[in-house]
Amino acid sequence: AQMRALLQDEFAERFYTRGNNPTVAILRQRLSALEAAEQALVFASGAAAMAAAVLGFVSQGDEVLCVAKPYSWTRGLLRDYLPRFGVRTHFVEGGSCADYEKAWTPSTRLVVLESPNSMTFEQQDLPGIAALARSRGALSVVDNSYASPLLQQPIKLGIDLVVHSASKYLNGHSDVVAGVICGREELLRQIFRG
Q1: What is the distance of C-alpha 163 from the center of its chain?
Q2: DSSP string, 106-161
Q3: Sequence-distant (≥ 6) Cβ neighbours of residue 104 within 8 angstroms
Q4: Tens digits of per-residue pLDDT, 144-175?
């Protein structure tokens, strides 16, 4: 009976170390505080975190709008893998909200941003694009690895989910390979349940 009770909420309960343990719980708490988020989930890499953030909210027939030059692993996920499962991605040039509004279709469910972009450092209008997504019933995700929570807290700008490759500035680009998603607890529970 105790085991069944613990399995009912692995997100919060410390039952199986892969899902939740004291060390990970402290890390989740600290990362969510840095991003002004309700909660955080930790992954083995930034690519794994982005994949979980995307796969948690799209289904066959859906469309993703993504900034034109995302990190290579994000581009590979969206361009090469998702079409095999009936999910299309439209890559959007430009940083203005109008660019995303023009690319929007009735099937758009998720907007993936990086501000600044990996390597090229273009920026997007995070508050404007987040408001557009919310007004149309879609979610917004931003990779905040390059800005870090020190320089930008996208949740305060209206973004739903913030992803980091913790290997970069959160760790000092040194000896850790990890990823994180920060956001509202209800969204992270959905990702956790898979």
Answers
A1: 4
A2: TTEEEEEEESSPTTT-----HHHHHHHHHHTT-EEEEE-TTTHHHH--GGGGT-SE
A3: 65, 132, 136
A4: 988 888 889 999 999 999 999 877 766 766 67
Mean pLDDT of the residues in the chain: 90
CA distance 20 to 31: 15
Tens-digit pLDDT profile for residues 38-97: 999 999 899 999 999 999 999 999 999 999 999 999 999 999 999 999 999 999 997 889
164 DSSP β-pair partners: 180
Closest by CA position to 65, among listed 28, 31, 33, 93? 93
Q: How far is the C-alpha of 7 from the C-alpha of 135, rounded, in Å?
A: 36
Residue among 161, 76, 79 nearest 114 (CA): 161
Question: In 10 A of CB 117, how many CB atoms?
Answer: 19
CB atoms within 10 A of CB 121: 12
| Structure-block tokens of residue 54 | 């995307």
Say which residue the tokens 């955080």 belong to: 40
Report, as residue numbers or ranges, the catalytic residues.
Answer: 18, 71, 143, 168
The Cα-based distances of 19 to 115, 126, 186 in angstroms read: 29, 31, 16
pLDDT one-digit tens code per residue, 105-134: 999 999 999 988 887 888 999 999 999 999
